[in-house]
């Protein structure tokens, strides 16, 4: 395949999927990874795409025909972003609310942001000016899906990371209260097995896990489990969350924040659970 044909294929793929990894392009184009990197460099210099670590993004992934997110999304995003500490390293998954969260995180100083989502990366690129308040943005490569990058390449990269806080969007939440001596609990779930594997790897890399789950996730079935409820240090939801869900999440997670478009409301249960202690020592580090 000639270079011109490869370039057209790359741009068409980015336009349809919102991003692609070097590994994915190597497989589709049938060329070496060095050839793919050279093609991406050429296209980046021409202003046709944006190179990121492990792959490339289109210059503009905004879809004007998509409806705006509901107001609860902005409340959840603002409440979650308030958890991020200036100077820390955070990871942001793909999924609902995370693009709005990325925009809110743009105001937090001196962040390093790792993400598996091309939508999050694109939002950060637009919201944070060059030389702005963030230290670094790292996009994990892999197979592009609506829930972010998945596959072995993404898993290998995530497993080399240590982050202070993970912001994890989930597809479903289910659980029960413990009654009459019977244990309670539950799980956060993902829409697919690959997305669940990526989520589990992100959870393992994080000291603190902040789950973004609006009221529509409660009771929704998921294909595979990402984590038990008690692995969440904070769950951020909205004020429409039903009473039974509030009771379960208050009992089995570290903190439940109920956000609305105006201001977050919090319920806290004092506790310490072993899973919140990160096994890798006090200093976060990362490897590209």
TrEMBL record:
InterPro entries referenced in this protein's UniProt entry, alphabetically: Carb_Metab_HTH_regulators, DeoR-like_C, DeoR_HTH, NagB/RpiA_transferase-like, Tscrpt_reg_HTH_DeoR_CS, WH-like_DNA-bd_sf, WH_DNA-bd_sf
PROSITE patterns in UniProt: HTH_DEOR_1, HTH_DEOR_2
Origin superkingdom: Bacteria
Stretches assigned to the HTH deoR-type domain: 3-58
Molecular function (Gene Ontology), one example: DNA binding
Key words, A-Z: DNA-binding, Transcription, Transcription regulation
Region feature (Disordered): 258-288
Name of one Pfam family that matches: DeoRC
Keyword Metal-binding: no
Protein name: Transcriptional regulator, DeoR family
Organism: Actinacidiphila alni
Lineage, top ranks: Bacteria, Bacillati, Actinomycetota, Actinomycetes, Kitasatosporales
